[in-house]
Amino acid sequence: MSAPVVKGWCPGAHRPMMSGDGLVVRVRPRMARLTAEQVLGLCDAAQRHGNGRLDLTNRANLQLRGVSEQTHRQLLDDLANLDLLDPEPGLESRRNILVQPFYEHGDQTCRLTEILLDRLADLPELPAKFGFAIDTGSNRVLSENSADIRLETGMSGGLILRADGSQTGVCVSEERAIDAALGMARWFARHSSPELRRMRNLVRHTSLPGHWTGKPPGPLATRSEPGFTPKGPLVGAAFGQILALALDDLIRKSGARALRITPWRQILLEGGHSTPAPGFVTRPDDPLLTADACSGAPICPQAQAETQMIARQMAGRIGGSLHVSGCTKGCARQTAASVTLVGRNGRFDLVKRGRAGDEPAMRGLTPEDLLTLTDLT
Prior knowledge:
iron; Sulfite Reductase Hemoprotein, domain 1; Sulfite Reductase Hemoprotein, domain 2; 23% strand; 3 domains; Nit/Sulf_reduc_fer-like_dom_sf
């Protein structure tokens, strides 16, 4: 079995990625937010130019699937008309910014993000997956999400800048925060290499300047779960997949004025009211909330097995978290899970308390084998 190919970039709008079901086109909403009108327009575009499916990514973006090369240009025009496309492809690829989704309009999270958006052209040349997290609420919510440079609340309540992989950061004022973050990005660009393309890996091999450490980050928030929040209903999407028709219906019936995308396969219906949401995860105890599965075969050309049907069947049988991966890359989950199933030649290898690339405890299991196993964890 040949090793899976690790892509060094993410599919953007200008630069889509070919998959087994057509082009994957990524939309990066500013502030992880789309107005209701933008959501409805995007749902229409997904049905006219793609296969009517949307993916939520762990970077709080949306992906349209099944787009043909012939309709890609028209899709870009539609995204531009919805104000969901950067005219400059280079700037779009740099706009990898996670924001904590419970911000108030005009608060520190918004102010810092808007300044960083205005300063994207000042960034040095960085790897395509390099990104920022702005997590300045009272409690941190993005600590487990992928980012290389973090602006977050410190233990003392002030603002700190922290390199991912470092346990501590440095206090910064709001006025100097973005300049300091750009300086950290330039330091990374000078010291990184093709083998060290993420901050977490770099700081294992290269010491940070001493003045960038010493201040611990603040407390963590509790895990966000489906339910009603002060901002509106929060609902989940199994494996991060949404049917455009279902999302169109949900936006209209909830009366939401906007949609906020989270990096946890959940969407926040800003200003909306609770309403039945068929096709979405609405219960905090739903086992699909702790199950991760990639697109699998035949959608992903590198997948060695179909993933999502077995994930649905197995989710309720696992006492902890479940990850079903079509190959050893483990795209759907980078951290360890209680049980990880890895596709191999139509069957599955079982990893206990590990990641997709770890040594399996059992190999060559059929879906029927998995459904009869009792010693899973």
